[in-house]
Amino acid sequence: MARQEYALMLLRSCYGYDSFRGQQWDIISHTLDGGDSIVLMPTSGGKSLCYQIPGLMSEDGFAIVISPLLALMNDQIDALQQNGVPALALNSEKTDNENRQTVELLMQGKVKLLYISPEKLLSEIDRWSSSITEKICLFAVDEAHCISQWGHDFRPEYTQLGALKQRFPEVPVMALTATADRITRDDIAKQLHIPDAKLFISSFDRPNISLNVVQGSTGRQKFRQIVQFINLHRNESGIIYCLRRKDTEKMATELTRLGIQAEPFHAGMSVSEKQRIQRAFVNDDLKVVCATIAFGMGIDKSNVRYVIHSNMPRNIESYYQEIGRAGRDGLPADALLFYNYGDMVTLQQFALQSGQAQVNMDKLRRMQQFAESGVCRRRILLNYFNERYDHDCHNCDVCDNPPERFDGTRLAQMALSAIKRTDEQVAMYTVTDILRGWRKADIAEKGYDRLKTFGVGRDFTMAEWNAYLLQMLQMGLFDVAYDENNHLKITEYGTEVLYGRQQIQLNRFERRDFSARKPAAAQAELPITPTGEKQMDSALFEKLRDLRKALAKASHIAPYMVFSDKSLTAMATEKPTTQAEFGIVYGVGQAKCEKYWRPFTAAIREHLEKRK
Ligand code: ADP
Ligand code: ZN
């Protein structure tokens, strides 16, 4: 059988997929030819297949996978074993006896993939006889940026890996990472001694994640919008990122009070508490986690359907990494970012106080440009990562709803005049209160309620004023004096506008309502059957999801390891009722077909019967 056909056969029988994605086959075939490679792919791009398939294809050899996180290693092995792939791990969690057994199986050629933590690798190999070492067909270095001091996650254990190429010059090395700028990338090649490695760079776009930004909402209003959004995604899993620990707690408590199951997660909690929450989330027992940035590392849950940023992240790198935790199964997912002036002030203070004020302020500004963008957000995101993306994405709020422009001169004059009449001694929120004519204690105290501008902006809501003032700030009509209680100071340009010598355009504020996403199946790349027109049955999907959960519980694995949401969607669309039909569904390989066809087809038949 030709090499590629054999690989495709394995892809179908082990994973239940019909074709390679993007550069996967090129990478695999380069490896089979003995070449070294550096593979840059975004999270969930499909890196693992690139090294797993060569391992599976080797006759009685095996591939070694070096991976830094024990939890992820165990996850991958569980998932592989579910697919009937002989994969094992050697690490410090195993007993000597288990490790001896593993080595025995390697000798017999019964293992195709061996996962090892970096610190164990060399000491293990030193103990192996040549009859084992000559079976090694590939060294795959996952999270390869960990080898570089320039990367953001340097791990000293990784430096030992440099010895591999010298000891085994014949064995190809594949370095994989989801984050690498040019410097890190060059450093990976240097440290691993693979100067001739072929570079495979995939697009970092995650087209299934819809990008949305809500401007100006604060406090209760923001909370109401979050609740509204979650209510439309009731049965789905999501993460809400907050800036501070106490916000995660408050958010979780208030959501729980409204009957939405939610828990906080942050670095101040005990290890056991954090583990409990992660486990509940992965097992679909807990729908919403309100987290600081500490959450998400080392969990590999593929059916996170949305990520909400209750506060703006400090830079685009964090934002991209955090939204990347949604939609790993490739089905539609939402990223929702709340952006308001208060966050900007806080983040600016963080940046200024950080050791690298200049760099961090620049990064924050880029993040702000993303949030305020009037052009397709995906363009901004990918351009930031130096990727050429020259069309509109049609899956972001700007593309869906291009902002309407209007002459905002009169509005700006109201605001500027209010600032001027207070002798530039007020911050943004007080300006809103004055314009809206709100007789709060501190306003009356200062006599601002007697100003000519008091209440002239009543026709606009607070949210509208917040959004427009933000735009005016961004346009440079006034500055914020961070060293003077954040008072607003009118610029020269602002003065021009105030006296009518310049006109300005604003983007019309739109109240966001969160209509439910299109049904997942409509956007998923599912095989279209010749009869066409098959629709996903969402009631059936719910039933299959419950079944999946019960089966996962019984075998003590996470639900997404039984089948991904994408496979369930395919089942609820194709509605297979026989073993043969079940066996060709997306994500159903041989092992899973044998294990699961009975309960799933039975549930589908029962569902179809009832509907007759
Ligand atoms: P990464 O390691 O790059 O984060 P994974 O290897 O975990 O990504 O792949 C992400 C998801 O995509 C997994 O559910 C995987 O099974 C699926 N996948 C990978 N390659 C293919 C393919 N060729 N066809 C369909 N699904 C694929
Ligand atoms: Zn777009």
Overview features:
single chain, 612 residues, alpha/beta, Rossmann fold, Arc Repressor Mutant, subunit A, seven-stranded parallel beta sheet, six-stranded parallel beta sheet, 28 helices, 17 strands, 46% helix, binds adenosine-5'-diphosphate, binds zinc ion
CATH class of the largest domain: Alpha Beta
Task: Kindly report the name of the CATH homologous superfamily of the largest domain.
Answer: P-loop containing nucleotide triphosphate hydrolases
What small molecules does this complex bind? adenosine-5'-diphosphate, zinc ion
Strand order of the largest sheet: 3-4-2-5-6-1-7
Task: Describe it.
This protein has 612 residues and is of the alpha/beta class. The chain folds into 4 domains: 3-201, P-loop containing nucleotide triphosphate hydrolases (Rossmann fold, 3-Layer(aba) Sandwich); 209-400, Rossmann fold (3-Layer(aba) Sandwich); 405-507, Winged helix-like DNA-binding domain superfamily/Winged helix DNA-binding domain (Arc Repressor Mutant, subunit A), CATH 1.10.10; 538-611, DNA polymerase, domain 1 (Orthogonal Bundle), CATH 1.10.150. The chain has 28 helices and 17 strands. The strands form 4 sheets. A 7-stranded parallel β-sheet has the order 3-4-2-5-6-1-7, with helices on both faces. Strands 8-13-12-9-11-10 form a 6-stranded parallel β-sheet, with helices on both faces. A hairpin with a 5-residue loop joins strand 15 (478-481) and strand 16 (487-490). Helix 14 (341-353) packs antiparallel against helix 15 (357-371). It is globular, with a radius of gyration of 28 Å. The site of adenosine-5'-diphosphate (ADP) has 16 residues, from helix 3. Adenosine-5'-diphosphate binds at residues 17, 20-21, 24, 41, 43-49, 302, 328-329, 564.
